Amino acid sequence: MSLVEAIARDADELTAIRRDLHAHPELGMVEHRTAAEVARFLQEWGIEVHRGVGQTGVVGVLRAGNGAGAIGLRADMDALPMHEAGDAPWRSQIAGRMHACGHDGHTTMLLGAARYLARTRNFNGTVHFIFQPGEEGCGGALAMLQDGLFERFPCDAIFGMHNQPDLPVGEFRLTPGPAMAGGGFFDITITGVGAHAARPEAGIDPVLVACHIVTALQSIVSRTVSPREPAVISVTKIVGGDAHNVIPQTARVGGTLRGMSKAVLADMQAAMHRITENVAAAFGATAVLAFGPTFIPLCNDPRQTAFAAETAMALVGADQVDPDAPAVMGSEDFAYMLDRVPGSFLRIGNGPGEGLHHQRYDFNDAAIPYGSALFAALVERFLPRGTAL
Ligand SMILES: [Zn+2]
Ligand SMILES: [Zn+2]
């Protein structure tokens, strides 16, 4: 019997867990019920549980044999602040909260692997099951790291996965090297001098300054970043003024930047400061540029990514696995864990349906046995029995 088939024997119970989590979504860093459920299941299956790692984070520890090697498997637990428009019986029971990114499925897939591994213990070493809070821009990965995640639970390699709508169920995609963008949000506050709109000579118009800054910012990606480097600056907000006949005192501009390397992001940020402040000065205005929380690019370790691709191919067949898929400009805070420990973040097929963050999105329960089996296979191949690392 294949690993997928072995775990599929638990499919009904795992599906019930996934749908219960889906019906009770919680926002980042306040996943109290979800964390309690995760801890309860792990305990029930004989796994050592550590709660409160990075506020609501949970780590399960499972050992077998006497091997010194350790592997980390990570899932995220948080939902999004949005209204669910779907009508499944397990739809969100909490207004304005929705599992629209499938983290309910990720948590369940890792629970499925934990249950199987606790039952079979067909490995030699230590597995750390890392249930992370607050992935959706809430800093959950950093919170766990600052709480000593890898000092308390050292790992030789770490792996995580995200579901991908439109990729068929049972298929996997991996990207060696830089795989997802880093970046962040920015806000610019421009201060001029308010005046009557009919007497512009009495003021300094911050709206005009904002327009020049927005235009000049678009020169950064085209003129200061190498054409070989993926990079984006999108200005998504201009706010200024209330009346047709008043030149306002201030105007605000906001948006996001993305890039595939820390160096490119730093260069882009320096250029944004230079342009914003000097364009404003050229008009006699001032501008203050502030960056919100930034996230680093996600970089997959090539060796561990090849290992994960081989493991996936052994599980579902080579034609179901793309070991060299193109990078994407989305972001993911597992990047902070991969910055500390080599590993890989892969994508698992969620089948046809709405895209991530859509109000009718739903995780596909048919994907659970594949995700759980891949997590379990990574453990069995990374910590093989009969050998000590
Ligand atoms: Zn998301
Ligand atoms: Zn997500």
Layout of helices and strands:
Layout: H1 3-8, H2 11-23, H3 32-44, E1 48-51, E2 58-64, E3 70-76, H4 103-120, E4 125-132, H5 140-146, H6 149-152, E5 157-164, E6 172-173, E7 177-180, E8 182-191, E9 195-196, H7 206-223, E10 231-240, E11 246-247, E12 250-259, H8 262-282, E13 286-295, E14 298-300, H9 302-316, E15 321-322, H10 335-338, E16 343-349, H11 368-382
Parallel strand pairs: 3-4, 3-5, 5-16, 6-15
Antiparallel strand pairs: 1-2, 2-4, 6-16, 7-14, 8-12, 8-13, 9-11, 10-12
The structure holds zinc ion (ZN) (2 copies).
The site of one zinc ion has 4 residues, from loops.
Q: What's the short version?
A:
This protein has about 400 residues and is an alpha/beta fold. About 35% of the residues lie in helices and about 25% in strands.
